[in-house]
Amino acid sequence: MPLWKQIFIALTLGLLLGISLNQSGHGEYAVSLKPIGDLFLNGIKMLIVPLIFISLVSGVTSLRDMATMGRLSIKTLALYLGTTAVAITIGLALAAVFQPGVGIELGSAATVAAAESPSLVATLVGLVPANPVAAFAQGNVLQIIVFAILFGLAITLAGEAAKPVKVFMDSLAEVFYKFTGIIISFAPYGVFALITWVAGTYGLEMLAPLAKVIGVVYMGCIIHAVIVYAGLVKFVARLNPVRYVQGVIEPAIVAFSSTSSAGTLPITMMSAERNLGVSRGVSSFVLPLGTTINMDGTALYQGVCALFIAQAYGIDLSFAQYATIVLTATLASIGTAGVPGAGLIMLSLVLTSVGLPLEGVAIIAGIDRVLDMARTSLNVVGDCAVAVLVAKSEGQLNQDLYDTAHVLKSTDLSTQAHPS
């Protein structure tokens, strides 16, 4: 049975059991299951530091020859990170307007306190770790991200001499992706235990806002795709945005159903080349990099969910904490694997960075599959948008092919290997 179905079943059973216990006045029995959920949360926490460092280093080193691809790299990175920052800002803005977490008041039954956030200036100054070992030991997410980026760039610039290190980091990244899969495979048990505890403690009051969270995330993804991506294609690349939308339908649908931007990569590349006229050289560089770096949908989801959890626990965030969420989600998106379930890991990073309770992940995990479909589609649609913009600026876009309506046929995919 697919994992998402297992999680849905666990969520449903946990809700039914928890609500039954709550309504019958035996909510204290639900507390006995919380340690199982805590084990799952500890597993997620265990992955945070090594996963973000290793996968980020592996992603940065994929840039390969910085001397010959410097201009292409700068454009790609700037567009990916810029649109990601805009995406999470949209998510925070929508969550602030619609307030999906207001009225839940989960903090009334638990002692939860947000870590005191430093000023924005102090945060920026503290990005570079004076002691990387201390940053790892203390779980300082931002410092780990910066150190990983610099370390990855050093490996790339060292060239042939650092090849064994690059191969090792790539292999280690694959190991940790599998490790992540192992931890995520226990999600149904963790979700069942935590949701039973939440529902048994708080009752039906926490159910209604979940539909609101889903609606806000989907609304944000649509706004970002139509206004940001199509807007960039129209006003920066000076291309017909309708043709762009038509050209990204296939990868968007596959991503929606598979919830894996990495698994959608072959169709994304073929659609970019055959539907949108992007050259093979640009697509082979920009799109694979996008599966690691471009996580606009995931970042938008972080903004909505982080503010939802803060509202649910009655925690007021400062401007510096908002800025920290934007910065953390933007930088963390570079090291997030384009595989199902990675969004929960990234959400735990964002929550940790501003001291929000990780218990809130239990509520989000139950509807994560529904949210994952929208955010993964936005990720691959964004990959195509950046590929079009970079190709256009480099003179490597076939304008005639872009302007010609074309739908990718199933026979075009028959010879393509689908990555695991």
Sum this structure up briefly:
With 420 residues, the chain is mainly α. It is built from 20 helices and no strands.
Give the helices and strands, then pairings.
Layout: H1 3-23, H2 28-31, H3 34-61, H4 66-98, H5 120-125, H6 132-138, H7 141-158, H8 163-185, H9 187-202, H10 208-235, H11 241-247, H12 249-258, H13 265-274, H14 280-293, H15 296-312, H16 319-332, H17 342-353, H18 360-366, H19 368-393, H20 399-403
Helix pairs in contact: 1-9, 3-7, 3-8, 3-9, 3-17, 4-10, 4-14, 4-15, 4-16, 4-19, 7-16, 9-18, 10-11, 10-15, 10-19, 12-13, 12-19, 13-14, 13-19, 14-19, 15-16, 15-17, 15-19, 16-17
Summarize the structure in words:
The chain is mostly helical and 420 residues long. It has one domain: Proton glutamate symport protein (Orthogonal Bundle), CATH 1.10.3860. The protein contains 20 helices and no strands. The protein has helices at residues 3-23, 28-31, 34-61, 66-98, 120-125, 132-138, 141-158, 163-185, 187-202, 208-235, 241-247, 249-258, 265-274, 280-293, 296-312, 319-332, 342-353, 360-366, 368-393, 399-403. Helix 4 (66-98) crosses helix 14. It starts with a helix and ends in a 17-residue tail after the last helix. The model is unreliable at 108-117 and 407-420 (pLDDT under 50).
